[in-house]
Structures are given as C-alpha cells and as structure tokens.
Amino acid sequence: MQSQTSQSSPVVDTERVFHVQNTDYYYGSNLAVRGVNLEIPGNKITAFIGPSGCGKSTALRCFNRLNDLIPSAHIKGRITYRGVDIYDKQVDPIELRRRIGMVFQKPNPFPKSIYDNIAFGARINGYQGDMDELIERSLKASALWDEVKDKLQNSGLSISGGQQQRLCIARAIAIEPEVILMDEPCSALDPISTLKIEELMHELKENYTIIIVTHNMQQASRVSDKTAFFNAEATEKGGKVGYLVEYDDTQKIFSDPQQEQTRDYVSGRFG
Amino acid sequence: MTVNSEQSPQLQETKANFNPNLKGRYRFDRVFKTISWIATFAGIVVLTVLLIGILVSGLSSLSFDFIVNPPSRKPEIAGIWPPLIGTICLLVITALFAFPVGVGSGIFLEEFSEDNLFAKAVEINISNLAAVPSIIYGLLGLFVFARIFEPVTGGRSLLSGGLTLALLILPVIIVATREALRAVPDSLRLAGMALGATRWQTVRSHVLPQALPGIMTGTILALSRAIGETAPLIVVGAATFVPFAPELSIKGLQSSFTAMPIQIFSWVSRPQDGFHEIAAGAIIVLMLVLLVMNGSAIWLRNKFQSNR
After folding, report:
1. Over 70: is that where the pLDDT of B233 sits?
2. Nearest residue in A to B185, CA atom
C-alpha cells in the first residue's frame, strides 16, 4: 500500500480514477461513515447503494470536495484522484470541481435561458472556443438537442423535469470533466425520463467515469458495472454510522454477494 | 353491522374512533375569516378617513404655483418647491449611500462570513440598531456628519441629513438583504460551485439576481420610511424656512436644506388657518411622491421577476 501511494506520479491512471483509502467522514466530531476503502475504475459506472442515512451521498460529495461548503465536514484518510491526494493543500477545490462534475437529486437548472445554463460554466472557466458550437455539442451529448434546439433562449425552468435533469447533465459535461458524480439523479423523475437518463449514462461512460448514488436497486443493476453497498449501524451515542459492506462487480453483488447483509438488501428483505 | 337501508346523501360514519365535528370546524373557520376581515377593514377605514380629511382640506390649495413657489409668510402665495427638492435630494443621497453599503454587508454576512462569534455579535448589533429611535440617529448625525466631518459636509447640510437618514435605514436594508438571500434555495449555490465557480461568481450570477426583487422591496420600504422622518432631520439641523431649492452641485450638497415633513410640521404649528390648508396640500404632494416611489418599486420588481 505504501509503495503505491508514494509513486503519485501524474501519469494517467486509466484503470483507477479514484482511490479511497481507509477514509472516515466526519461532520464536526460525529463520525458519519467509517473506514471506506474503494477503487473507482475509469470509464465505468459505479453505483453506491444502501439504505437512507448510510452516508452514500456524503461519500459522493467528497470526491469533488463539495462537502467543503459545510463548515464542519471533514475527512480523515486519503482520497486520491489519478494519484493525487484531493485533500492536499496544493489542490484547489475550484479547479477540482471543473474536472469532476456533478448532477444533483432534484434538477436544479439556473433560472436563466437554456443557453446560459450551459454557457455559465464554460465562461467562468475561461472557455476559448466557439460557444454556440459547445452548447450544441453538450446538448447533443445529453440527448436534449432535438427537444430544445428551437428554444435555447427559453428559461431552463420552462422544460419538463426530465429535460431539466438532462440540461443539468449537459451543463456538467460542457466544461469537459473527467468524472460525473450523480446524486440520485432520477429520484424526482417519472419512469420514462428515468429510462432516458439511464440510456444517456450508457453513452456517457465511453468518455466519462460515472459514480451514481441511487436508492433504486433495479437502476443500479441496470446501469452500473460496479456496485458498492453501504449500510449503517447504530452507535452507542444513539447516532448512526455508515460503512462500506461490500464492493464488487454489479453482477456479482446482485447474483452472488459475499455478505449476508448484501444478500438481504438486494433481495429486498430490508432497506 | 347492518346495511343502512335509508338512502341518505350523507356519508355515514362507520367507525367510532373519529368524531369529525365538521360543524364546529366550519364555524371556527367562519369566525376566523370574520376576524381577519375586520382587521383588514379597520386599517382601510382609518386610511380612508385620513385620506378624505387631507383631500378635503388640502385639495383647494393644490396648484402648479403651489408646487413651484418658495415658502412665504403669506399662506396664499406660499409654495413647497425648496422642501420638495430637498426631500428628493435627501432620498437620492440616502439611497446612494445606504443601498451599496447595506446590500454589501448583507451579502457578506449571509454568503461569506463564517459562523463565528464576530458574525453573531454583528448580527445582534444590527438587529438592535434597527430598533434605535430615530432621534438618536439624529444626534449621531449631528455629532459625526455635521461636526466632525464639517469640512466635507458643510455642517448642517443636505449631505449631513442624507447620510444620517442612510444610517437610519441601513439596518433595515441589511436585514432585508439577508432575508432575501436566505430565501434563495441552496441548490443554486451548489449547482454553481459544482461547476467550478468561486463563491462570488455563484453569488453574482445566480443568487443575487434571485434575491434582487426582495432586496429592492426592502430598500424601497426603508426609503419610504426615510422620506417621512422628521426627528433626525430637526436634530441635524434642517431649517424651517429655506427660500431656494438646493443647487445641484457640490456646493448645493453642502448648503442648508429643508424637507417636506419639516415644512409640514412648521406650517401646522402656526396659528393661521391658511397655513393649515397648505400643510394639507403639502401632505398630498408628499403622499404622491411616496406613491410614485412605491409604484416604481413594484414596477422594477415585476420587471426583474419576469426576466427569470
């Protein structure tokens, strides 16, 4: 382990995008998730599943250091992104977040035009190319272009929920990230919109590494290549602490899990 | 349980665990509706009586000459041009200082400051300041702006008066700004930050435009309060008889001034009936100014809201 971490060369590590080593996640002095060890492979979809309150979202939000915005949140341990410790003082979270995009649970387009929704990220990050072309490319990549090409100046809030979520994906990929984090991206959508997003994810994984948190086990089994099952247990103080139970190929998790808890969860016996 | 053979249009209560008491609940509804209606009506009645009283006694003295004439010892030829311009100048000065400072502090406290002891102390102090009587602000303004900064403000001048009013409404604007910012959902901030925007970029592009209508409403309400303030201006030293409107220059800012509430106060306290009539006329003009201000505020707010 030590020999691996010391060779943190900038050489592109295609196999392993993220490496979480022995990481504890805290809110203030409260331990939220303990002892996570995880490797996220590149150009694959990794799903985080588990019951509510087991820390899936917390773990997800640490990959782009969005949890920094909560003053008390911090981690103990080491999370590397392509060999670089993302919590190192040298790493600028603003720069990190451009490389690691995020899509949220509820579609949250900016209350601006569809065009400006996508252009914002590009502008602030100093995009040099042709903006119109970027907008078209991003909307095509998120399978939204045909539906909105005639109304780019309409408000991002004027389209349906499923379209809004695809707009959020377009917005995220417009700044050319390498990873897209998705925090229950379909939980506020109807089944048809959900299906579209899932199809989209399949196309996106050619170019991006995707980590998705989902409550929907069918979704995890449909879209993901790897699945991490988190669970929570009560602490003596009356709180809850999450932990990673099992992490393996999705097929293995759903057909032949090694842990009794995982078996119970994926067969719907609890959670 | 036997089948009820009676074909009653009412839904039958089949279980004894609930006592819906619909009648009682509807009665309470009506009582509450009546109470709130009376409350609304009371306000409207008082306003209407005031308005009619003012209109009856003041409408006769309203004329073009009344607006553009300077005050005089004779009520027949007295006008309100200098206090009207004084009030408008005061408002502009007040807005120019209070808006940027108030909104700036609101943004800092809500979006940037960490939740530490200093921020809490500032917060408590601002809430306290909002409750300080306006005459205290007058004394502060007299001491700070009219005395210490006399070389800049020219003593008991328009500028001193405007700055004092700005201080007076600053806490209100800060509180309104914070409330408006707090009402913007966090999901917008997260969305901005997740795209690699800095905090200011997020606030500037997404949070502030959403909060702006609320900030504007708060600011206009605060300015409406400032327009009617008399006490602090008397302390700072507004004159009761100013024959000329202030010049629109630096020198004008440093000149002595008067404002409409002060002119009204001065006229009302005279014994002659003629002055009471033109005081009512001045009140109508003041109300019109207020109406125009609030109207433009609503217009501005709708304009920003429809831009979303």
Report:
1. yes
2. A108
Three-state DSSP class for A233?
strand
Considering only CB atoms, which chain A residues are within 8 Å of B185? Answer: 108
Cβ atoms < 10 Å from Cβ of B185? 12
A73-81 and A16-27 strand pairing: antiparallel
Please give the domain boundaries of chain B with CATH numbers for all domains: 61-306 (1.10.3720.10)
With bands split at pLDDT 50, 70 and 90, how would you rate the model's confidence at B13? low
Q: Check if CATH label 3.40.50.300 holds for domain A2-266.
A: yes
Report the b/e string of B124-139 with b at 16+ CB within 10 A.
eebeebbeeebeebbe
Q: Tell me which residue has tokens 């939980």.
A: A187
CA distance B201 to chain A (A): 8
Report the length, in residues, of chain B.
308
* pLDDT given at position A172: 93
DSSP SS3 for B108: helix
Strand-pair partners of A210: A45, A180
For range A116-128, the mean pLDDT: 92
What is the SS3 assignment for A91? coil
A49 shares contact with chain B (CB less than 8 Å): no
Residue of higher predicted confidence among A179 and B1: A179
Asked if the model's pLDDT at residue A48 lies above 60, the reply is: yes
Which residue matches tokens 């249009």?
A: B9
Query: Coil, helix or strand for B176?
Result: helix
CA pair distance B14, A125, nearest whole angstrom: 66
In whole angstroms, what is the distance from residue B239 CA to residue B237 CA?
6
Q: What percent of chain B has pLDDT over 90?
A: 31
Give the closest residue to B134 by CA, choosing from B263, B230, B220, B238: B230
Residue A1 has pLDDT above 50, yes or no: no
Q: How many Å lie between the alpha carbon of A10 and the closest alpha carbon of chain B?
A: 21
**What is the C-alpha separation between A47 and A28, in angstroms, rounded?**
27
